[in-house]
Amino acid sequence: MAIGKRYKSAREGVDPEKAYPLAEAIKMVKARAKAKFDETIEIAINLGVDPRHADQMVRGVVTLPNGTGRTLRVGVFARGAKADEARAAGADVVGAEDLVEKVQGGNIDFDRCIATPDMMPLVGRLGKVLGPRGMMPNPKIGTVTMDVTTAVKGAKGGSVEFRVEKAGIVQAGVGKASFSEEKLVQNVKALADAVAKAKPAGAKGTYIQRVAVSSTMGPGVKVEPGSLHD
Known about the structure:
By secondary structure, the protein is an alpha/beta fold.
């Protein structure tokens, strides 16, 4: 029951019906992140889209100005000079057929996956494994590329992939509770701008409808959508 009491205490002072300006919402979330670990600060954006329609899919990647506070393990499918380039850039796992076999066997030692274009016929076999995890390389978000150095360094340096879920929601981590309020606000605005720019042609009506921020163990705090772009 200790967790319940802590959550109830954290909810005090948060009006579940009110949407707060972004800076105020971040301040409230940080003040309530009292777990024994550095909680992740997360954002959920409800969009006016139906992702079941291809022309309403929202997907992209953004590099947060202050990083994510999380160290990502990056896997790269490449051969020869490009494999060497990936290792030099800091990739954690690099391979070709051997790496495909490992992944098919359930051994996935990375959080972000990058591939050179020539490797996609091989990597395509991993769709059933990587797809459900949201890790399948895609040229639209820069994870299928010949510029593996930029892709690897971006993943290591704080780039965040976002993709709308079936319910029309984009969720992403935007930093840690140990970040300053200013850095978290900057990260949220960078993500919100990227989501706004990714507005699909098929979206009708209000695009960004509802927004909330929270910490890993804390309550959600609603945010005024307009304050994302002040």
